[in-house]
């Protein structure tokens, strides 16, 4: 009896405590958050979920009408299997809902994002853009998602949006921009992102005149040369993704855009070589099959070179160009971060660079190599890079994305015969190794004359054991395994046991297997 009374008292006390925590002393604790924080939380939700918060209580009824960012997505309100052949009641309800949003929203809208098939709501979209410009929109994201094969007509952005003086960020996907004859650039634009857009030469010329434009991003676009094109005079961040660029155009951009600080060229074509002469450039990332020559880049800190090839002939041409251009000369030796893809390491290894004539990376503190598993002919290249980089603090060794199979695996004593170098003895503190695949190779096991063939996993941990055995100040070695294997735990145990057999040079190493 006494035990039963005690249990009831504990249950009642727990219930009272829970109610008090939920009520927050009689107040809505989430509602009492500072308004900027509350609006930021709701801005992360799709607009339909933000509107649903109005049913929580009377205080929440109009909160969603004041959030500065509105995210509208047509696909979020349609079922997965939907006949996207023509406008239906679902589309009409979507348009009606967005119209109601503008009716309830009388305040300024800082950011508006819409993802839909513009072919099914182009008339309504024209009206929404008119209302957004009237309410001084600052950031706008337009994503045309073609849901039907019949949606072949490209949506043309209204001219009034191009003349919007309050617009600071504009991102457009799969639309057409046709500027008016009197268009002289975006007066207040800071960031412009164009993806799969039809670009006229007059638009590119007008972009040059935008006085405050700092970030420019082209994706899946074709940039044609112009006789009077000079450069992007004020742009600090420039990105080209999957673009066709004429050689004369890229040459003009990379030698005359004096304010440029960040440059990305990813999977582009139309040119084979780039000459970079930009005095303020700090970051250069090139992910296409072009050779790079650095001439006047005194502030360059971060360089990534990772070419991709479509055929064997293209790779041979690239390797020949490497030996002629000598890309490791000049200001590249002054960088602090260097990332090299497997194909460029393979190409540099094949031309037998004389590192003593090239020089050393005196400022390099972070080196990233996408080379695993390391082939026999590439090991000397990796070893030499460590030797000419005496002050490396962080080393990242990743997977070779272009390797799909191993023809042969040589279990010799190469890394065991290599001596230590200055960076391993004095500076290297962090190592990250990423293993994403297991390579199975049939090898012979057993006594001589009684061998049997079995498939064994290849992890290529010889390089990791070399690093553990010679890195005297190493603090962390992180081995990330993204293996598509049912025996993932067993694979980790095999690697861990293999590394534990090595005599570690540093007593403070933290070996991590996330």
TrEMBL record:
Residues 1-21 are annotated as: Disordered. Residues 27-77 form the F-box domain. SUPFAM superfamilies: F-box domain (SSF81383), RNI-like (SSF52047). It comes from the Eukaryota. Residues 11-21 have a biased composition (Polar residues). Gene3D superfamilies: Ribonuclease Inhibitor. CDD domains: F-box_AtFBL13-like. Residues 1-10 have a biased composition (Basic residues). InterPro entries: At1g61320/At1g61330-like, F-box-like_dom_sf, F-box_AtFBL13-like, F-box_dom, FBD, LRR_dom_sf, LRR_FXL15/At3g58940/PEG3-like. This is F-box domain-containing protein. It comes from Amborella trichopoda. The lineage of its organism: Eukaryota, Viridiplantae, Streptophyta, Embryophyta, Tracheophyta.
């Amino acid at each position: 009896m006494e035990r039963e009374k005690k249990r009831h008292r504990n249950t009642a006390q727990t219930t009272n405590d829970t109610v008090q925590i939920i009520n927050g002393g009689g107040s809505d604790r989430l509602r009492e958050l500072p308004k900027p924080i509350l609006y930021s939380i709701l801005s992360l939700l799709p607009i339909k979920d933000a509107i649903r918060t109005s049913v929580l209580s009377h205080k929440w009824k109009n909160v969603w009408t004041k959030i500065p960012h509105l995210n509208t997505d047509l696909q979020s309100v349609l079922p997965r299997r939907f006949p996207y052949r023509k406008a239906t009641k679902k589309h009409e309800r979507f348009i009606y809902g967005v119209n109601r949003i503008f009716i309830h929203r009388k305040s300024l809208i800082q950011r508006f994002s819409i993802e839909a098939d513009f072919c099914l709501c182009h008339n309504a979209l024209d009206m929404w853009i008119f209302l957004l410009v009237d309410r001084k929109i600052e950031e706008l994201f337009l994503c045309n998602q073609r849901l039907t094969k019949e949606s072949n007509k490209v949506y043309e952005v209204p001219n009034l949006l191009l003349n919007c003086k309050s617009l600071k960020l504009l991102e457009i996907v799969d639309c057409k921009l046709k500027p008016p004859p009197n268009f002289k650039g975006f007066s207040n634009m800071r960031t412009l992102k164009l993806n799969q857009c039809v670009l006229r030469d007059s638009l590119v010329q007008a972009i040059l005149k935008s006085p405050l434009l700092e970030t420019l991003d082209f994706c899946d676009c074709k940039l044609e040369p112009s006789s009077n094109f000079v450069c992007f005079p004020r742009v600090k961040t420039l990105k080209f993704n999957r673009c066709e660029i004429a050689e004369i155009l890229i040459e003009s951009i990379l030698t005359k855009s004096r304010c440029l600080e960040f440059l990305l060229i990813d999977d582009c074509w139309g040119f084979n070589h780039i000459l970079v002469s930009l005095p303020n450039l700090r970051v250069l990332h090139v992910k296409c099959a072009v050779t790079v020559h650095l001439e006047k880049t005194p502030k360059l800190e971060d360089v990534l070179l990772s070419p991709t090839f479509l055929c064997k002939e293209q790779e041979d041409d690239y390797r020949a160009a490497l030996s002629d251009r000598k890309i490791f000369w000049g200001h590249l030796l002054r960088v602090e971060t260097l990332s090299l893809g497997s194909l460029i390491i393979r190409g540099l290894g094949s031309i037998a660079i004389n590192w003593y004539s090239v020089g050393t990376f005196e400022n390099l503190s972070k080196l990233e190599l996408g080379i695993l598993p390391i082939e026999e002919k590439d090991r000397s290249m990796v070893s030499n890079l460590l030797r000419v980089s005496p002050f490396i603090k962080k080393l990242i060794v990743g997977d070779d994305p272009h390797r799909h199979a191993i023809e042969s695996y040589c279990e010799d004593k190469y890394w065991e015969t290599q001596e230590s170098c200055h960076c391993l003895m004095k500076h290297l503190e962090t190592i990250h190794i990423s293993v994403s695949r297991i390579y199975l190779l049939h090898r012979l096991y057993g006594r001589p004359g009684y061998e049997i063939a079995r498939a064994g996993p290849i992890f290529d941990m010889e390089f990791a054991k070399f690093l553990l055995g010679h890195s005297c100040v190493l603090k962390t070695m992180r081995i990330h395994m993204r293996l598509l294997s049912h025996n993932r735990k067993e694979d980790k145990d095999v690697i861990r046991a293999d590394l534990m057999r090595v005599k570690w040079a540093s007593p403070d190493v933290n070996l991590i297997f996330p």
